[in-house]
């Protein structure tokens, strides 16, 4: 194990996969200078500009070229800089990449990873702060991943690169600098679709992903210390496929479910988890997400759009 940041872990994952498989390559804006968050730093020095490619500022062109390159046998890692910018390339992703394998009867595959940084990040305002994971989970043919820790960002990214379907890989911008222990083994991966129990508990199950996992764990620790409420926190890791079995087993024990995400609550993926648990178990369910507003620029207003540890604790307290 070695201590790495979330960004360093992803960089290590790409480097290991590029060394392992010559068909893996990366493209996007400013990759030659290391990417916006340093997640590609040094890769062009090792692999050259033919495999770490700077592109023009055209998300549709980046995505379209990647779809074609994936269909003829390579494995592109596509950098979209911000998830908001990827909306310029939704047709190429949703109508082409996601559907090609089905429409060609399995004769074509589109093994590509689309990295889309998500989330509220230091006054980045309405066009640079969105969490749109539910959009992609809705689309048949797409895999959707949202890692919460440096170790997961290595293990899941390696699995995403090896996946034969297009993977929308959503990394929270506020996690880039967080640190944690990461396995050094170059062949270590994590399976897509398997959740992780962040914290065990008996009174209520809290399900989350990405940056909100840390907030949920903090709220659970405070509740147990201050009020004796025992909350189990589950990190989904992958939104599609998502680990129904582990979530259902946990809620069957606790009898209560709270789903927490930073994305807008209306139409969020939390509703899918809550509805599934309600249909399967008849348990008490609740979801907690952001209000349906654009993310403001001014910090005091931005804070009104955040889901906080206090809000999570209050929701659990009402349920328990």
Q: Can you give me a brief rundown of this structure?
A:
It is built from eleven helices and 14 strands. It is of the alpha/beta class and 320 residues long.
Give a short account of the largest sheet.
7 strands, mixed
Distance between the termini: 38 Å
Estimate what percentage of residues fall within beta strands.
Answer: 15-25%
Shape: globular
**DSSP helix fraction:** 25-40%
CATH topology of the largest domain: Rossmann fold
Number of strands: 14
Query: Treating each run of at least 4 consecutive H or I residues as one helix, how many helices?
Result: 11
CATH architectural grouping of the largest domain: 3-Layer(aba) Sandwich
Query: Number of domains in the coordinates?
Result: 2
Poorly predicted residue ranges: none
Using the coordinates above, name the CATH class of the largest domain: Alpha Beta
Protein architecture, described:
The structure is a single chain. With about 325 residues, the chain is of the alpha/beta class. The protein folds into 2 domains: about 1-180, Rossmann fold; about 195-320, Rossmann fold, CATH 3.40.50. It has 11 helices and 14 strands. β2 (about 25-30), α2 and β3 form a beta-alpha-beta unit. The model has no long low-confidence stretch (mean pLDDT about 95).
Fill in the keyword field for this structure:
single chain, Rossmann fold, 5-stranded mixed β-sheet, globular
Task: Set down the secondary structure blueprint.
Blueprint: E1 2-5, H1 6-20, E2 24-28, H2 43-47, E3 52-54, H3 59-71, E4 75-79, H4 90-103, E5 113-115, H5 133-137, E6 143-145, H6 150-162, E7 167-169, E8 179-182, E9 196-199, E10 204-208, H7 212-227, E11 231-235, E12 238-240, H8 244-254, E13 256-264, H9 269-281, E14 284-290, H10 299-304, H11 309-319
Helix pairs in contact: 1-6, 3-4, 7-11, 8-9
């Amino acid at each position: 194990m070695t201590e790495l940041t979330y960004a360093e872990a992803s960089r290590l994952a790409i480097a290991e996969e590029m060394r392992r498989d010559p068909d893996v390559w990366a493209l996007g804006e400013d990759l030659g200078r290391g990417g916006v968050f340093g997640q590609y730093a040094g890769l062009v020095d090792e692999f050259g500009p033919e495999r770490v490619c700077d592109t023009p500022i055209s998300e549709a062109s980046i995505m379209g070229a990647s779809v074609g390159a994936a269909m003829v046998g390579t494995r592109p890692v596509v950098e979209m800089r911000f998830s908001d910018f990827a909306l310029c390339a939704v047709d190429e992703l949703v109508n082409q990449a996601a559907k090609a394998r089905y429409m060609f009867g399995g004769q074509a595959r589109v093994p590509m990873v689309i990295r889309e940084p998500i989330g509220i990040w230091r006054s980045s305002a309405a066009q640079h702060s969105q969490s749109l994971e539910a959009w992609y989970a809705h689309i048949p043919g797409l895999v959707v991943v949202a890692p919460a820790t440096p170790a997961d960002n290595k293990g899941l990214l390696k699995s995403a690169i090896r996946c034969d379907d297009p993977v929308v890989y959503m990394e929270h911008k506020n996690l880039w600098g967080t640190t944690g222990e990461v396995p050094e083994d170059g062949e270590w991966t994590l399976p897509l679709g398997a959740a992780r129990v962040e914290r065990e508990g008996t009174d209520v199950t809290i399900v989350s992903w990405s940056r909100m996992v840390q907030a949920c764990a903090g709220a659970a620790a405070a509740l147990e210390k201050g009020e004796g409420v025992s909350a189990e926190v589950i990190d989904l890791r992958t939104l599609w496929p998502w680990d129904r079995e582990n979530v259902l087993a946990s809620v069957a024990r606790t009898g209560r479910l709270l789903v927490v995400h930073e994305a807008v609550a209306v139409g969020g993926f939390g509703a899918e988890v809550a509805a599934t648990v309600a249909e399967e178990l008849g348990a008490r369910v609740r979801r907690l997400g952001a209000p349906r507003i654009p993310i403001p620029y001014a910090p005091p207003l931005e804070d009104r759009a955040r889901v906080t540890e206090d809000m999570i604790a209050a929701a659990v307290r009402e349920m328990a």
